[in-house]
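Lab channel / #folding
Pinned by the channel admin:
"Please post every new chain as: sequence first, then the structure tokens as a reply. Keep commentary short and put observations after the output so the thread stays searchable."

First post following the new format, from NK:
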Amino acid sequence: MDFDRYTVVLLVTPESPPSLSEEEADRLQDAHLSHLADLHDRGLLLAAGPLGDPGGQRHYRGLSILRCEPDEAIRLKGEDPAVRAGVFELVAMPWMLPAGAIHFTPTTFPRSTRDV
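Reply from TO:
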């Protein structure tokens, strides 16, 4: 059986996130969204969005599915300005499923909170 290989990356709030002004938090959120849109435009990011964390155990914030290996996904997601600023930590996991079991329809990702 053939398998499609992806990487799932979770965005997690670190134990000691930085203290940000509202203005800086807004700027980083827009930069974060722009980074995701760039990865999507390059064909690497297939899906991404915020996550709820009802139990509050790990402070899950978001999930991304990328078309690359985990080490490359960590490198690409590590370029995110919000990750660089310490707002998010990354957890990457390989994900395999039967070839053709899932399809991602091309779409447009928002580049800022105004686009959301």
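NK: The domain at 3-98 is CATH 3.30.70.1060 (Alpha-Beta Plaits).
TO: also worth noting, The chain has a mean pLDDT of 95.
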